Amino acid sequence: MKALQLIASLAVASLLSLTASAQSDNHWDKTYSLSGQPTLALTVGDSNLNIKSCGDCKTVRITVDAKNQKLSDYRLEEDQSGDTIHFSLKEKGHLGGHVHISWHSESVSVQVETPANLTLHAETEDGNLDAAGLNGAINLRSSDGRQTIADVSGTLHVESSDGAVELRNIAGTLNAHTSDGNLSISGKLDGLNVSTSDGKIDLELANGSSLKNDSTLHASDGTVTVRLPKDLAVNLDVSTSDGKIDCNLPLTLDGFHSSGGGEHSVRGKLNAGGALFSIRTSDGTVHLSAL
């Protein structure tokens, strides 16, 4: 009997060992089952984050891969409560209070596969952030790294402290701000509030866009290029403190101002007018044209 117990114990220990070895020092993954629409809260430190849709699937899968870097150097925290999932991956601090500067965010990547419809808050401290094929309340923030967002719809809030942001084929309403980086936006929008403190803005509103609410586009130091549908109905208020206004739209002018320096402004209606669309740059030229 003791021999049988010993054999059984060894078998259990062997099974546990195999289970543990599925997670190595350069790979981690977990699949979370869902009963409804997920809410994801994702925070990564020194790593890239890629979030993509798996369509109508009923699970969320998170995968972490490291190259030339050990996951044991990171603190991984995760939990699930119903359909709400929290995930955090940050590099462990060094002992003795020394400041640690890391240069290997490209070595660690976090991949997330999720149902398309969700509520999402995702943040990277030092790494790129990519998101594709999502719909819902989407909040994305990066401190130091670029963002590439494609085929995403709903209510979008995007923020970047240092890095370019590209949004392709988006739909819904957009709030986006970069402190230091260019903004490139294309899609079918019904409202936007976009600004950059240091960079240029390139906006293309797709056919079918209809600005239902007052919208703004502001660059503190950079050129603004805007392409609009021919049938878009808006009241345009365009100004630059130091630059030119290049407008090739059939505006019904309400006002025009040009100083002896670089200050210029134009106000007018496009297609009988509609919601106010304010476009401003403090230092740069504004280009306006139709699709």
Outline the fold blueprint.
Blueprint (H helix, E strand, L loop, with lengths): L1 H20 L5 E7 L5 E6 L3 E6 L5 E8 L7 E8 L2 E8 L16 E7 L2 E8 L4 E4 L2 E8 L4 E4 L2 E8 L4 E14 L4 E14 L4 E5 L9 E5 L4 E5 L5 E7 L4 E3 L4 E7 L5 E7 L4 E7 L4 E5 L1
Please summarize what this structure is.
By secondary structure, this protein is mainly beta.
Strand content: over 45%
Give me the number of helical elements.
1
The residue ranges in which pLDDT falls below 50 over 5 or more consecutive positions are 6-22, 94-105
Output mean pLDDT: 88
Ends distance: 83 Å
Listing every helix as H and every strand as E from the N terminus to the C terminus, the arrangement reads HEEEEEEEEEEEEEEEEEEEEEEE
The biggest sheet, with number of strands, parallel, antiparallel or mixed sense and barrel status, is: 23 strands, mixed
Account of the 3D structure:
There is one protein chain. With 291 residues, the protein is mainly beta. It has a domain of 128 residues. The protein is 7% helix and 55% strand. It has a 23-stranded mixed β-sheet that branches.
